[in-house]
Design brief:
Length: 137
Amino acid sequence: MTILKIVLSSLLLLSCSVFAEIAIIVHPANNASVDQSELNRLFLGRGNSFSDGNRATPMNLAEGLPARDSFDSKVLNRSSAQLKAYWSRLVFTGKGTPPPEHATSAAMKAAVAADPSAIGYVASSDVDDSVKVVATF
């Protein structure tokens, strides 16, 4: 019975992290606004500028991280496997390269804070004042 409780508790904690709120972050000096369609455009390589015309550099978290899985499903409406196939096709045909990946939320925040054109995402609980939140999902 105790083992069952431990397993159920673990599954509950895992499911909470998978459905965590995602914060879309930019450099604090960036005044661009974004919506879901613009995020799709930027993170799928269909555009390279914000709606205000300034250059945009999208950045991803590494595959397999809970925030990456949430971003892929909530914002891009695709599974990780679908995105991997999408980018494989574009790379193979020479039509695009996927956004650079960061291994941790801390690395993502540092990269976004250092680059005024950067846009990325982290779990809302990981946000601090080194970056600016422009949307949550």
